[in-house]
Write a structure and sequence with these properties.
- With 233 residues, this protein is of the alpha/beta class.
- The chain has a single domain, classed as Vaccinia Virus protein VP39 (Rossmann fold, 3-Layer(aba) Sandwich), CATH 3.40.50.
- It contains ten helices and eight strands.
- Strands 1, 2, 3, 4, 5, 6, 7 and 8 form an eight-stranded mixed β-sheet that branches.
- The longest helix is centred in the N-terminal third of the chain and has 17 residues, at 4-20.
- Mean pLDDT is 92; it is low at 1-21.
- The chain binds S-adenosylmethionine.
Length: 233
């Protein structure tokens, strides 16, 4: 669904693109998503995660500095790396958790991609006002407003972020299901000081009724997800 906010964001993005001649993503973005070196399990998720459309909505462009916040295995790290190209930088914030093997795999991905700085620390260690764009995906359900405020601080004024999570319904044990009621996410985004540019249905699917644990086999990892595009004023 194209909401008024999303329409405005698309129009603003197109206007900027026409004025500067800039592309939304590096020209070989799709080639890199299909590259033999990219893990097959990452590619298998492209259908539901819609990387090209998400990068377009966030208006990620070549040469930008972007942050993957709570990057986990690094699925978005690799997508962002392809989007900003060799002249850009991805800060992949993995945190200090995980075992030695996970850390090694995360570092190996960063080394292979070349334009990624792996950060095994909290997001504040990335610096203040350093990023043009940020993504945090499937993380907010166990976090709070302070987590979003760290993203706000990492962005440059005018910088934008995308917040994606597994949608939950009120009255369910969403903590147990690893889901989040969208209205709660919206409240936290407002509390953190962001402007909401778009509340997008890009990752919505009616095949998920919000009652199942997100990793249930029936869902095949294709959960219903909310997506907010937000801006640091
Ligand atoms: C469900 S995963 C999502 C990973 C990734 N954002 C994605 O969309 O593919 C959530 C991740 O957050 C990571 N995480 C948990 N606590 C963290 C922290 N304090 N700082 C950074 N990452 C953390 C976990 O390791 C986990 O991999």
């Amino acid at each position: 669904m194209l909401t008024p906010g999303k329409t405005l964001a698309v129009l603003v993005g197109l206007t900027i693109g026409i004025a500067t001649g800039a592309q939304a993503v590096a020209p070989d973005f799709m080639d890199k998503l299909g590259a033999a070196a990219r893990p097959a399990e990452d590619k298998a998720r492209d259908g539901s995660r819609r990387p090209y459309q998400v990068m377009q909505l966030l208006d990620v462009r070549e040469g930008m500095t972007v942050v993957d916040v709570a990057a986990g295995g690094g699925w978005y790290t690799e997508v962002l790396s392809a989007a900003v190209g060799p002249s850009g930088t991805v800060i992949a914030q993995f945190g200090s958790g995980g075992d030695a093997a996970q850390r090694q795999a995360r570092q190996a991905r960063a080394d292979r991609l070349g334009n990624v700085q792996a950060l095994f620390d909290g997001l504040p260690a990335a610096g203040v006002g350093v990023a043009d764009r940020a993504v945090t995906a499937l993380t907010l359900h166990h976090r709070n407003t302070a987590f979003l405020r760290e993203i706000y601080e990492a962005l440059k004024p005018g910088g934008m972020a995308i917040v994606i999570d597994h949608e939950g319904s009120p009255g369910m044990d969403n903590d147990e299901l690893h889901r989040m009621v969208k209205a709660d996410a919206r409240r936290m985004i407002d509390e953190a000081g962001f402007e909401v540019v778009a509340d997008s249905d890009l990752l919505h699917t009616s095949a998920d009724d919000h009652s199942l644990y997100i990793m249930s086999a029936e869902l095949g990892r294709d959960t219903d997800r909310f997506l907010f595009l937000v801006r640091r004023p």
